Amino acid sequence: MTIQEIKDYLGRFFDSVELAGNTDVLISGPAKIESAQKGQVSFIANDKYVRHLATTAASLVIVHKSVCVDDFIQNTSFLKVADPYTAFVFLLQKFATPRIIAQKGIAPSAVIGNDVSIGDGVSIGEFAVIGDRCRIGSNTVIGAHTVLLHDVAVGDDTVFFPNVTCYDGTVVGKRVVIHSGSVIGADGFGFAPQKNGSYIKIPQMGIVEIGDDVEIGANATIDRATMGSTVIGRGAKIDNLVQIAHNCSIGEDTVIAAQAGISGSVNIGNQCMIGGQAGFAGHLELADRIQVAAQSGISKSFLQPGIALRGYPAQPMRDQLKHEAMLRNLGAMREKLNQLEIEMKELKKA
Amino acid sequence: MTIQEIKDYLGRFFDSVELAGNTDVLISGPAKIESAQKGQVSFIANDKYVRHLATTAASLVIVHKSVCVDDFIQNTSFLKVADPYTAFVFLLQKFATPRIIAQKGIAPSAVIGNDVSIGDGVSIGEFAVIGDRCRIGSNTVIGAHTVLLHDVAVGDDTVFFPNVTCYDGTVVGKRVVIHSGSVIGADGFGFAPQKNGSYIKIPQMGIVEIGDDVEIGANATIDRATMGSTVIGRGAKIDNLVQIAHNCSIGEDTVIAAQAGISGSVNIGNQCMIGGQAGFAGHLELADRIQVAAQSGISKSFLQPGIALRGYPAQPMRDQLKHEAMLRNLGAMREKLNQLEIEMKELKKA
Amino acid sequence: MTIQEIKDYLGRFFDSVELAGNTDVLISGPAKIESAQKGQVSFIANDKYVRHLATTAASLVIVHKSVCVDDFIQNTSFLKVADPYTAFVFLLQKFATPRIIAQKGIAPSAVIGNDVSIGDGVSIGEFAVIGDRCRIGSNTVIGAHTVLLHDVAVGDDTVFFPNVTCYDGTVVGKRVVIHSGSVIGADGFGFAPQKNGSYIKIPQMGIVEIGDDVEIGANATIDRATMGSTVIGRGAKIDNLVQIAHNCSIGEDTVIAAQAGISGSVNIGNQCMIGGQAGFAGHLELADRIQVAAQSGISKSFLQPGIALRGYPAQPMRDQLKHEAMLRNLGAMREKLNQLEIEMKELKKA
User: Fold this and answer.
1) Comparing C-alpha atoms, which of B22, B28, B52 is closest to residue B41?
2) Contact at 8 Å (CB) between A275 and A255?
3) CA–CA distance from B261 to each of A11, A23, C178 (Å)?
């Protein structure tokens, strides 16, 4: 692509794309600013990387419209936009080599059950197993070895990577991406304790419902509800190895980082951000836009939107930081205490 | 089912099932008390839900025999039992739609090794791979894509969901359930450090033995022993994404919640309850009926049965709660200390 | 094997192997010192196990050359070496029953893409799927149901257990072992936040590169880089359920225990040891030979080689242990404070 073509492409997303420097260079692909070579495009979204402008070999750099690039346009061309990070994401999408997860059509080795409906343009990979009465939307891709048990409904333009397992009854929206190894709809962890110390299994009769535009990482687990649905809201992003227990509801556009664990019947609001390895006790609620620090332990509901939480048990960030500062100063407190004790002894002697 | 039929069914499990209200209503299925509709059955096992009795649309509610329902029998029927929760679990089982994990018989695409013995009534799903010399008990179900390496022994009435992997030599009991993505018998994490900083792999020559009535969640990992067996005791319940390292022994009817991690050579007693994301150091022992709070870090053995543990490093609950209270009061301590310091200065001045 | 044969075998690894006792006993296999039977070989690498010498039924015990065994040679033979643990590891390898992961050759059910190159002596298991343009080195074993998407390069003598998934472009070295359920090269967790609270996916265009002699446990996840490579250095050992996010670099011979989580763009040095369930914030660096205690939370870079870290947020071990001791003594501090308060009151009264 020429720089002019890139300018035109970004113009589809931004009101203003300003060029500084040469337009007729050919750009072969994207790279990080530190390692970019001649012919590559990079970006700077953070002031602390501006220093790289003097030395980068990139032929094109996307910068914020406020950055002064006059000193560098001899060697490098620039496109100035309001949001260079997002602009670069669009370029990454443009340059991305198409990944083939499964060939168009149904692989001869795939096994399709009875009364299955399959939309136009679907790709179903080798050894995929589609259970009875499943419905697969148009242009959806089902990777090799992915198993949908019976009565699974999948929307259009959704992608299952290889080796995903969906239990019976799962409902998956449009434009969803589910990475390899994830298990959707396994039985919730529900057992009724008996007097002799053993357990009776509580049948998990509900399902999992995954909204449109959700992405689920590798080896995550989302359990079916006991009754009703475990719900992953539209646009939520769930990282690798996350556990979401039965009867949870995860809000729209909420992001959950790797290895976080959400116990049963937790309700998380919209646009929350949950840090990696954070854990939630069961049956609690989080309001919208709450941020939970990594490794925190959430032991109760927090109903005020937009707050940040941290610690074990987690509390609002301001309280927790004060608490942590006090802990760090414990040595000083002890010294002061010992000093007072000495002074007290002296005073009493006197 | 009519209410009379439900009463008769529960009478098989409870000495006394007392009816209040109408018996000839038809019940179509179970639901939560808040969302139950006409024709559905629900339950109340906790006093704080009794308030829903005034408003529920459920046609039948299972309650504890002590609950007074006289005000509600105009609209709702009741069955009074000693344990409404367990009674409802039995009803869930009664109403559960049968889930088909694999069709009866051996799927034509499954690959069965040499010298395999397969009991009556077994179901083996598409693309399952059963290694040489495996023995599969009667009525056992092996989901699509599940792989048993060679010399695996499985008891009767056991269920493997799709995409389970069992390494060679694994022994699995009767009525066991293993959910998708779990890996049983992978090599323990054992490497002998060499002087140059690299490692030699220690062959993991043992196996995993899983007792009867165990349930293992999705994407859990249970490693084979170095020598001998890693043992999961009868009736143990292990949640999603749990790690059980080599040479561990997990007691009977012990419950381990999601994402907990048990290091090598740990012995956990019977009827313990391990919270989610709890972690155990290696080579330690827990007595029977110990409860470990979520996210705790167990750093040493605890040999007194029945205690509760919490914290990092974990200690008995009473000590830990005292410790946490002290931490919460650290601000007050600091104030008192500063106040004393001022008073001391004044005293010395005087 | 006779004891003489074992002595000769160990002589290939150790300068000195000294025999005490009988040489012509037949040894059938290895066992732990507590449970070893007649005809078995065991070892003692730790002084606290020396007491077992009086009672063990083992016919042969490997001990350190400094251990005095004169009292026991009537019943037991001994081989004395400089490193009995490593000697025993070599014996374990000698006695290990060969495990068959896949038969030599390509299983008839495996699906091989276009332009794939396959080395001599390769084993490819049932239903394995090898994407277009993959290159598989000599004597490599690919378990049943393992999926390599297109353009994956694998070195010689590498083992994939069943049900591994490698995304497109992954590069795997020689003598690597990857256990079942692991997912290599899934998309990094990268999304650009938009003003309306939703996210645009950032294409993850990089790959994962795994060095020679790496071992990766079951159900681990290693994400591909956004651009460039996520790198697992030669000889690194990664346990079950570990998460390694995009753009990380893990040093050579570094060991990461189960359920640890490494956030994006973290650089870990060589020969580090990371404890189980430890978590790392993103974009930080660890020097060589650093040890991180289990469940620690690493929130910043540590650039001094060889230190030990612990706590949340983690700090050097000495500081952290001091801090923990202070926390344990908080009760004493409070008592002292209350005592001082009383004395102060009395003094002021006087």
Assistant:
1) B28
2) no
3) 51, 56, 20
Nearest to B268 by CA among A191, B259, B281, B277: B281
Tokens representing residue C76 in the block: 């037991």
> A75 near A69, Cβ under 8 Å?
no
Q: Which fold has domain A3-95?
A: 3.40.1390
Catalytic residue among A64, A145, A179, A246: A246
- The answer to whether C59 and C38 have CB atoms below 8 angstroms apart is yes
- Our measurement of the distance from residue B8's CA atom to the centroid of its chain's CA atoms, rounded to an integer in Å, reads 30
A328-to-B83, B323, C313, C323 alpha-carbon distances in Å? 50, 17, 11, 8
B3 in Cβ contact with B22 (< 8 Å): yes
For chain A, domain boundaries: 3-95, 105-320
Q: What is the ipTM of this complex?
A: 0.92
Q: Do B183 and C331 touch (CB under 8 A)?
A: no
Q: How far is residue C130's CA from residue C117's CA, in Å, rounded to a whole number?
A: 10
Query: Collapsing DSSP states into helix, strand and coil, what is residue A131?
Result: coil
Spatial distance between the Cα atoms of C9 and C17, rounded to a whole number of angstroms: 10
Residue C190: count of CB within 10 angstroms of its CB: 21
Q: What angle do CA B38, B43, B47 make, to 5 degrees?
A: 125
With 0-12 / 13-18 / 19 or more C-beta atoms within 10 angstroms meaning exposed / middle / buried, residue B56 is buried
pLDDT digits (tens, 9 = 90+) for A208-264: 999 999 999 999 999 999 989 999 999 999 999 999 999 999 999 999 999 999 999
CATH superfamily, with its number, for domain B105-321? Hexapeptide repeat proteins (2.160.10.10)
- pLDDT, one tens digit per residue, over C291-345 is 999 999 999 999 999 999 999 999 999 999 999 999 989 999 999 999 998 988 8
From the CA atom positions of chain C, what is the Rg in Å?
27
List chain C residues with CB under 8 Å of A344. Answer: 340, 343-344, 347
Q: Which CATH superfamily is domain A105-320 in?
A: Hexapeptide repeat proteins (2.160.10.10)
- Sequential DSSP letters for C136-198: E-TT-EE-TT-EE-TT-EE-TT-EEPTT-EE-TT-EE-TT-EE-TT-EEEEPP--EEE-TTS-
Q: Neighbouring chains of C at 3+ CB pairs within 8 Å?
A: A, B
3-state secondary structure of C322: helix
Read off the pTM: 0.93
Residue in B93, B234, B295 to test binding to A, most A beta-carbons within 10 Å? B295
CB A179 within 8 A of CB A163: no
Cβ–Cβ < 8 Å for C203, A96: yes
Nearest Cα residue to A205 out of B61, B123, B91, B10 = B91
